[in-house]
Task: inverse folding
């Protein structure tokens, strides 16, 4: 383990291992190579998979991955370039060209699903149990579970052709392009001048110590998203996404509106329903938190723009260098391998740190089999940026360790993908708390509870809104933006109760600023599930100490090689199928809230 000089950290992506630009002629050459490899694959396996000998599946997967790896390279590069410049027309045009080309190329592969379906459930389960195919056990098992939803080849081809131009992806792209162009006018109370800021910057202002700044940021966001033209466009985008989801639900025969997402997460509908129910039942904890915070701020109730306000009068800032040092010092104490990997990310320019015009807001980590992890941030000198850094590098580490798995079982469902990210945040939290006075702990617990409620309770509130809208469309109702506003307002009120002052004239249009409900329906419960799981894992770590770390690494290295319930049971020894499991995770929040209340009583 060598010492790392923070000043040497590279803060912009270097994508030299991909392509020089979207105009790089190597992209066209690689697309042609993919086409040739897919043609060869089709010729070699058409009519053969249904009767393929057991010992030929290793070769089958190798042939599939030969073209799949090149596809991933192109798609990852396009994600990165478009994330850095969402308004670049050359990039958008190239994305459209590639989408059309890949649809043509891969349309010939629909026979694969048909032939696996022809093998039947029992034979696929048999394959999953063969020792020589043990590395692909979960692939065969999940294929067995999913074949009932595979349609005839003609229908599958039609759906594939429709998707880029008329389905969910088209309206999601429209949403991305439109909201990526938004700029927000805010008032600088020092210079008394107005200025335009990005989405990430205006949202960061909601955490200002100055109530005028917070209120102004809230009003600026509201002004943009409540503009009638914007409401009409985003309302139509969301309505058509809902209709597209309903069409596929009906065509494929899923049991209910969330079944497809649940199956992709390898979770039963009952387990997910239990998650939603248990979190919704615990809304009073959130309301209690808001009321304690209101008293600390000298108010009877919080205004909506006060929810994210820091309790400290002087807002503590973290430069990127300070934040990175804090995280690296923390992760080094936990595990040397985790530290070395995090340093490697910055030495090799795989983290893009600062906001920029046209840059996608928020943060993400991206990784795939055979490709190193990359992370996107939008650093605005807040403590939350340090937590986000820890979070995304947790994702990156998970992606790195999972390289031990075959491509077909490399990725986990989103519900497990959040584990390493939240675990990193909890390690960071413990370090910070150990260095604080009671006043500092009170302020930090406020921020930590706010973040926890946002990633557990608020995500479930999103899901309950989504489920309500999807069910309405599925039952034949027609919904427009005013209906979405009404449903959103009711779900928000359920969560916060009477703890927040409602703003007169607020159209409750916040749903339209939540990108996940457009990009990936029902995705958000993964955050809640992952946080609850991680609380339980962290308790194990506190009980077992260093002996827990090898188990934790084995969990991360396992990728998607087993369904979540089996994976957690095998590596950690916990049963995630019981209601008590969710209640135990939520009890950790209750403990934090008790500490917060006790410290508040000392003020």
Result:
């Amino acid at each position: 383990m060598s010492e790392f000089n923070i000043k040497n950290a590279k803060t912009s992506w270097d994508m030299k291992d991909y392509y020089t630009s979207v105009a790089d002629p190597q992209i066209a050459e690689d697309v042609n190579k993919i086409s040739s490899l897919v043609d060869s694959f089709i010729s070699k396996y058409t009519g053969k998979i249904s009767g393929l000998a057991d010992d030929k599946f290793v070769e089958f997967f190798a042939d599939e991955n030969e073209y799949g790896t090149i596809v991933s390279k192109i798609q990852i590069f396009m994600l990165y370039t478009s994330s850095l410049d969402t308004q670049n027309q050359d990039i958008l045009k190239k994305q459209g060209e590639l989408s059309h080309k890949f649809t043509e190329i891969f349309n010939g592969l629909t026979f694969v699903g048909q032939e696996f379906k022809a093998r039947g459930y029992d034979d696929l389960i048999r394959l999953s149990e063969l020792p020589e195919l043990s590395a692909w056990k979960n692939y065969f098992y999940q294929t067995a579970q999913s074949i009932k939803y595979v349609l005839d080849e003609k229908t599958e081809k039609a759906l594939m052709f429709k998707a880029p131009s008329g389905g969910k992806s088209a309206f999601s792209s429209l949403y991305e392009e439109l909201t990526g162009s938004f700029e927000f006018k805010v008032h600088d109370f020092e210079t008394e001048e107005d200025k335009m800021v990005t989405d990430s910057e205006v949202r960061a202002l909601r955490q200002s110590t100055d109530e005028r700044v917070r209120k102004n940021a809230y009003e600026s966001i509201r002004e943009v998203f409540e503009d009638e033209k914007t409401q009409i466009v985003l309302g139509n985008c969301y309505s058509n996404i809902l209709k597209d989801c309903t069409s596929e639900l009906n065509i494929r025969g899923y049991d209910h509106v969330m079944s497809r997402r649940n199956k992709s997460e390898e979770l039963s509908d009952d387990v997910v329903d239990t998650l939603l129910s248990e979190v919704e039942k615990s809304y009073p904890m959130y309301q209690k938190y808001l009321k304690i915070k209101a008293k600390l701020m000298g108010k009877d109730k919080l205004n909506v723009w006060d929810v994210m306000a820091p309790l400290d009068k002087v807002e503590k800032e973290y430069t990127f260098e300070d934040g990175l040092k804090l995280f690296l010092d923390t992760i080094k104490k936990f595990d040397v391998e985790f530290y070395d990997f995090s340093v490697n990310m910055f030495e090799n320019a795989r983290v893009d740190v600062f906001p920029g015009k046209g840059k996608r807001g928020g943060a993400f980590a991206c990784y795939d089999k055979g490709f190193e992890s990359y992370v996107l941030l939008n650093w605005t000198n807040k403590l939350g940026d340090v937590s986000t850094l820890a979070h995304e590098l947790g994702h990156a580490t998970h992606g790195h360790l999972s390289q031990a798995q075959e491509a077909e079982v490399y990725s986990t469902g989103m519900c497990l993908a959040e584990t390493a990210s939240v675990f990193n945040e909890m390690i960071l939290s413990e370090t910070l708390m150990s260095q604080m006075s009671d006043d500092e702990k009170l302020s930090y617990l406020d921020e930590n509870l706010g973040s926890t409620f946002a990633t557990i309770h608020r995500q479930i509130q999103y899901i309950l809104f989504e489920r309500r809208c999807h069910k309405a469309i599925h039952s034949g109702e027609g919904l427009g933006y005013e209906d979405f506003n009404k449903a959103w307002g009711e779900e928000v009120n359920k969560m916060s109760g009477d703890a927040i002052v409602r703003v007169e004239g607020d159209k409750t249009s916040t749903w339209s600023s939540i990108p996940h409900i457009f990009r990936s329906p029902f995705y958000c419960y993964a955050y809640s599930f992952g946080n609850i799981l991680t609380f339980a894992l962290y308790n194990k770590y506190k009980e077992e100490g260093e002996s827990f770390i090898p188990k934790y690494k084995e969990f991360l290295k396992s990728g998607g090689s087993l369904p979540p319930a089996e994976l957690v049971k095998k590596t950690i020894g916990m049963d995630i199928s019981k209601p008590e499991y969710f209640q135990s995770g939520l009890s950790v929040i209750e403990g934090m809230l008790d500490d917060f209340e006790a410290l508040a009583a000392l003020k």
